[in-house]
Amino acid sequence: MKRLLLVLVLTVTVSCGADFDDCSQKSNGSFDCSNQDLGGLKFYDGDLKAVNLEGANFSQANLEKVNFDEKSLEGANFSGANLKLAKLDELVLRSANLTGANLEGADLSESELQFANFTGANLEGANLKRTVLSQSVLEGANFSGANLSRADLSGVRLDLADFSGAKIHDANLSYVNLERADFSEAKLDRTNLRGANLKGANLKGANLDDADLRGANLEGADLEGADLTGVTADTDTEWPSGFNSIGAGVLTIPSTRSPMTTTAKTTDTTTADNWCPSALPLPKGFKLPTCDVIDKKVKLEISGKYPVGDTRAGGYDLVTINARNSGDQPAYYRIIMKYGLLDEAPANYEFAEDFDWGEPGRGGGLGVIQVAYCTETSVPADGKERKLELAIQNEPGDDFEHNAGWFLAEPHQFYYKIDQFSKNSSPC
Question: Is 152 within the bounds of a domain?
């Protein structure tokens, strides 16, 4: 009778090989299948509501199109399982075993997958937006065409992984081993690749616009047709032999790990705090001295100074960026951000005036707005690198009151970029 009741609750067809006899039913009607052996189970297009599956064994199970309903599956075993088109969003899957699993087209967005093992798994076309994958093993996994926008991949192992055609906007891949990984035609714009090992990686045709490659190793990497416009590198970045980083639009700054030196006959006191690049290209909209520029992208932050109910309180009312005042007078800085919601961003994120973005809150939620931020105190002219804090200038009731927080709550892909970055002698 217990097995019959479970089948009715799950509303799925269970093969005769499935065994739920050891699952206990609770007083509220839910079932506890934690740590149970459900290997070889066959579901299709089913719903696993009201079932505790933490630590369960689903090896070789057929779970195509199954909805796992925001559960904790920490430590579960899905090795060799078929999870094609499964709904696994907002789940806790820490330390899960997904080796060799088929996750083609599955939704894993906003799930916690720290320390999980995806060795040899197929995640082609999967949705991993805002997913936490830190310290996971992804060796030999197929992420072709997958969406990893704003995912955290810090500390993962990605040897020989396939990311061809994947969307990896704003993701964190700092200090990750990406040796011989395939990123051909991938969108890596604004991605943090600081200290990453990209030796021998395939970046042919990839979009690295505004990515951070400081300290990265790209020896032997294929950069044919790659877009490196606005990339930030430093003197520790290793490029393929003969590669012209300046010609590719890369801004190179000195490493912060040690002072720059010249020949033994010359005493050189140049450091990262007073060094100035010469004649390096700046992104469109940067209207300030080249020597002031260190970073070319901001961090969106919340100051917490606005009371609950203020239209600015729910969003990012502060942007920060590393810069230096290389002039001889104190100065103020102003940044105008462009925020947009799109299913696909226009080429190079130039936000062309003739591109039909629609308006915020209309046309399915797609739109673009501009928001101004300014330093509230002057920056001394000492040439030192510092973190600038620029506060939002739009007042409640303005046309742009929604700011970044409103955009982040929308279901579409959130894009942002610096539209204008300027230096002024007086406050905004």
Answer: no
Q: Strand 332-342 relative to strand 367-374: parallel, antiparallel, unpaired?
A: antiparallel
Q: What's the number of domains the chain is made of? A: 1
Residue 95 lies in a domain: no
Please report, in angstroms and rounded to a whole number, the separation of the first and last CA atoms in the chain. 73
Q: Within a domain: residue 49?
A: no
Residue 290 carries which DSSP code? G
Which domain range does residue 305 map to?
A: 286-424
pLDDT band per the 50, 70, 90 thresholds, residue 198: very high
How would DSSP label each residue in 315-361? Answer: S--EEEEEE---SSS-BEEEEEEEEEEESSPPGGG---TTS----TT
Asked if 428 and 331 count as a contact pair (C-beta separation under 8 A), the reply is no
Highest mean pLDDT, choosing among 147-151, 255-259, 277-281, 414-418: 147-151
Name residues whose C-beta falls within 8 Å of residue 268's C-beta, 6 or more positions apart in sequence.
259, 260, 261, 262
Per-residue pLDDT band at 378 (split at 50, 70, 90):
very high
Is this prediction's pTM over 0.70?
Answer: no
Per the domain annotation, does 331 fall within a domain? yes
